[in-house]
Specification:
146 residues; mainly alpha
């Protein structure tokens, strides 16, 4: 199967997004536990145990969503590499779902009035979407006439 340079570029972008998807849930550890500080600031009456519980919930939820993203990226990259006819629409649909998940993490406010995730972590969750956007742009780009 012959792949075009745009398809190879799209697969490379998907692989970059895969790496970002895997790393995004660990951004909190790299930022000296912003999530716990964010929960503490939003809920000053929470005990340390309750803050830990809220953080633990996020630390289960974020990798679970990331695992779904990994499966979507692997599946769409495989479909593009093997030339499946449905690869572009499937990749576009997975991108749209990823954007929805990313924007939900970035913008959803909790009962304290602040976003559920600190902005740094919300934006870290959006980083894989940039690679997805590049992949989609490459997949839908018209080939140059030669």
């Amino acid at each position: 199967m012959t792949t075009t340079s745009a398809e190879r570029g799209a697969v490379a972008a998907m692989c970059a997004g895969l790496g970002l998807t895997v790393l995004a849930p660990y951004a909190d550890r790299a930022t000296t536990h912003l999530l716990a500080d964010h929960v503490r600031a939003g809920y000053p009456t929470y005990t340390p145990a309750r803050v830990d519980s809220a953080v633990s919930t996020y630390l289960v939820l974020l990798p679970a969503v990331g695992a779904l993203g990994v499966l979507a990226r692997l599946g769409t990259a495989w479909a593009v590499r093997t030339g499946k006819r449905w690869a572009r629409p499937a990749a576009t649909a997975m991108f749209a779902l990823g954007m929805c998940f990313g924007l939900t993490g970035l913008l959803t406010k909790d009962t304290s009035g602040a976003t559920g995730l600190p902005p740094v972590l919300g934006w870290a969750g959006m980083a894989p979407c940039l690679a997805g956007l590049l992949a989609i742009a490459l997949l839908w780009r018209r080939p140059r006439s030669g």
